[in-house]
Amino acid sequence: MMKERRGPISFGFLMALFLVLVGCLVGCDHGSLGLRGGSIEGYVVDSRTLVGIASVYVTATSEEDGDDTAAATKYTTTDSNGKYTFSSLRSDVWKLGFSKTGYAPLKTNASDVVTVSVVNGETIFMPRVEMVQNYSNQYVRVKGVLKDAINGNSITYGNTNFAFGNTSFSNRLPTEFVSGFDVPASVEAIKIIISVDGYKTLTIPLDNLVNDYDLGAINLTPESYQVVGRWTNAPGWVVSAAPTATIIARSGKNVVSRTTSVVGNGDQAFTLENIPRGTSVAIEVELLGYRMNSPITIYPDSDFQGTIYQNFDLKNNFSAITRDVRIFYMSSTISSGDRVGAYCEQTGTRWPEVTVTNPAGLTLGTPQVVDLGTQALPTGYAFDFVGYMLEDSSGTHTATGVKINDDGAEAQIVTIK
After folding, report:
1. Which residues pair with residue 52 across a beta bridge?
2. Lowest-confidence pick of 44-48, 342-346, 393-397, 406-410
3. Do domains 29-131 and 322-416 have the same CATH topology?
4. Exposure b/e, 216-253, CB count within 10 A at least 16 = b
5. Max Cα separation, the chain?
6. What residues have CB less than 8 Å from 59, skipping those under 6 apart?
7. What residues contact residue 85 under an 8 Å CB cut-off, 6+ apart?
8. Is domain 139-220 in CATH 3.30.980.10, yes or no?
9. How many Cα atoms within 13 Å fall on the side-chain side of residue 168?
10. Which residues contact 167 (CB under 8 A, 6 or more apart)?
11. Nearest CA among 39, 106, 45, 107 for reference residue 78
12. Order of strands, edge to edge, in the sheet holding 92-99?
């Protein structure tokens, strides 16, 4: 039996096998035959808050050696923390682009594009990418409650104007601010200006306006006038003592203004400020040793804004709180027939003179203590008392710095000796 004869291997077959091997080697250089390739990891954050941005669309584009036909593009999105990952990238220079609705995009052909060189088997951790939020054509809602700074009540009427930067809302009711206004968002500082008839204009500065904003209760100060008061006919002992008076202006049961004032040569005037425009007030005063005969009422014009001047007369608007003072004059030189008297140096109050007589009975001598009776004096202040004998100048004695108290119903005893 004859053996089968085999022919020589053709040259064409060998050439084909060689080309396949070369292709495999080229593929290995490009990471396509079992090489892991390189990886890129990084984070995308908000430029203002530095918080990671989720769902950012990230592209990676490669152009091998400037050959457009060999370009490759891969895509991914960031997770809830703003992290993105590209894996199995061939060794090359890759350009990254980032885009998300509401943010200015960073495109792969932009001047600020992120470029990275990838090497097989390595993971490259990219610097943080900050995206700037784009607020054009975006609106936020701003709201609040307008209240009267004096009485705390909500303001429900009066022509109102609102300005949010360059956006204005005119001829509104104060209550419309409760539901709020939609205004253009802004990453820049902005001023909110609120004007209500009868109230002082209020300006509220904000660093930005990128989110809905509830300003809560906003207190507006009513347009106002002031009362400048002046003390008149203050007695010398009051001026010397310089007591501090408390002055209160009331509108109904509400205190709308309050101040204090020293009644003395150095501070004769006082000012009640921020009384709401057009509001009549009753002014009450608390002063040591005095009570007001009745509150002093101020009636301004309804649109008045300015100053009203008012005298507070201690002689006509006030009454002194008094107490009976009983004077006892004591001296060892009193003789029968002497006339004894006393007076208060500050008030000029005089006690009737008494003629001293020996009491009935031969065994009793002239009394050494004489009761001069009582007179009413203002309370709360210290006075000097002088006792005297008409027939004997050496019988003049004093009691100085005696404070008249207001805590007793009976006469206060002052002894001059």
Report:
1. 45
2. 406-410
3. yes
4. eebebebbbbbbebebeebbebbbebebebebbbebee
5. 196
6. 73, 74, 75, 96, 97, 108
7. 39, 40, 41, 76
8. no
9. 7
10. 183, 184
11. 45
12. 67-77, 57-64, 92-99, 114-118
User: Which amino acid belongs to residue 52?
Assistant: G
Give me the numbers of helices (H) and strands (E) for the chain, helices first please: 2, 31
Q: Specify the fold of 224-320.
A: Immunoglobulin-like (2.60.40)
What digits encode the pLDDT tens for the residues 187-198?
Answer: 889 999 999 998
Alpha carbon of residue 265 to chain centroid:
37
DSSP letter (8 states) at residue 207: S
CATH of domain 29-131: 2.60.40.10
CATH code of the domain occupying 322-416: 2.60.40
Q: How many residues does the chain have?
A: 417
- The mean predicted confidence, pLDDT, of the chain is 86
Q: What is the pLDDT of residues 306-330, one digit of tens each?
A: 999 999 999 999 999 999 999 999 9
Contact indicator for 351, 358 with CB cutoff of 8 Å: no
| Domain ranges, ordered by start, for the chain | 29-131, 139-220, 224-320, 322-416
The residue assigned the tokens 């004869």 is 5
